Amino acid sequence: MKCTNPQVYKANRSNRKTETVNFGDVRYFSVKVPKQKSDPRNRISLELVGFEGPKEFPRLFGSVTMHLYDVIQKQSFTEICAMRIRNMVFCTAEVEFMFCYGCLGYGYSHQLKLPGADPAQSVAYSMFLRVPPPENRKDAVTNVIKPQRMDYPACLSPDLNVTVGNIELEPPAEMTDHYISLQNALKEPPRERLQKMKKEYRSLSTWREKAEYLDQLILKRGPKTRPTQPKVFFLLKGRQIRCS
């Protein structure tokens, strides 16, 4: 609830002309639009109150109720509201309503469908600073930033088929024999042994097992096995003989 600034009104009984009290105040409300039209939060209430002195209790002169959906559909309009108290019209109030959906320029403002409303105009006003795009990526027609090509991540394997980046790199300016031979080798189907190693590597559950598997491939080591009891006995015996 918000109140306008109080205005002084002195009734002149001798003058029968219509007197006008100008408030001229603007009040902003941040609201969340409910999905159900019957939601009581969609009700907008305007009340006209008055009091004779600062210590007097305010007295209700009239009120009017509007629906939030009607304001959203019209978006910006001026309404002459009849301020009623019970069944009697006390006065009329000229109120200007304005609704801005997503005034920050972000969110769901592009999803709102209004008759005759342009989404570009709805999001043109923004409280955030609009930084101009750099000159090397600036579109000369629309004055927006151009999309930039994203390379395939170097940390991912090409056979993962991820949707991030483009795996096809631009060819160099000079096509050397080494580059051509490398490209031809990459286009050839992988060997069956490579597919078998990939399958074995991905079947391992822990990182320690994967590290041991890579050590076996790179260093050409056999699997780590614990020595049997007779072998341990002969090793200890040989050490004792050497020590003696």
Set out the fold topology.
Blueprint: E1 43-50, E2 59-67, H1 68-74, E3 76-85, E4 88-98, H2 119-122, H3 177-187, H4 192-203, H5 207-218, H6 229-243
Antiparallel strand pairs: 1-2, 3-4
InterPro entries: CTSRT, CTSRT_C2
Organism: Anolis carolinensis (Green anole)
Protein name: Cation channel sperm-associated targeting subunit tau C2 domain-containing protein
Profile the largest sheet.
2 strands, antiparallel
Query: Number of helical runs?
Result: 6
- Give the ordered list of helices and strands: EEHEEHHHHH
* Neighbour order of strands in the largest sheet: 1-2
Number of domains: 3
Strand residue percentage: 15-25%
Instruction: State the end-to-end distance.
Output: 99 Å
Low-confidence stretches: 103-112, 240-244
* Helical content class: 25-40%
Q: Structural class, please?
A: alpha+beta
Summarize model confidence as the mean pLDDT: 75
Which geometry do the CA atoms define?
A: elongated
How many β-strands, per DSSP?
4
- Rg (CA only): 39 Å
Description:
This protein is of the alpha+beta class and 244 residues long. It folds into three domains: 1-99, no CATH class; 103-111 and 122-143, no CATH class; 158-218, no CATH class. Helix content is 25%, strand content 16%. It has six helices and four strands, in the order ββαββααααα. The protein has helices spanning 68-74, 119-122, 177-187, 192-203, 207-218, 229-243, and strands at 43-50, 59-67, 76-85, 88-98. A hairpin with an 8-residue loop joins strand 1 and strand 2. Residues 103-112 and 240-244 have low confidence and may be disordered. It comes from Anolis carolinensis. This is Cation channel sperm-associated targeting subunit tau C2 domain-containing protein. Residues 2-102 form the Cation channel sperm-associated targeting subunit tau C2 domain.
